[in-house]
Amino acid sequence: MKKKVISSLGFILFFFIMIIIVWLLLKQFVLPSDELAESEVKQIVEERYGGVIQETENKGKEFIVSFDRAGQMYQLHINRASGEIEEMSRIGEEKQRLTEQEVKELVQTASLGEIDSVNLKEKSGEEVFVAQVVKDGEAREITLHAVTGKVLSNELANEQPPKNTILTEEEAIEIALQAVQGEVDDVDLENEEDHVFYLIEIETGDEKEAIVEVNAITGESTVTWD
Question: Whole-angstrom Cα distance, residue 153 to residue 143?
Answer without folding.
Answer: 5
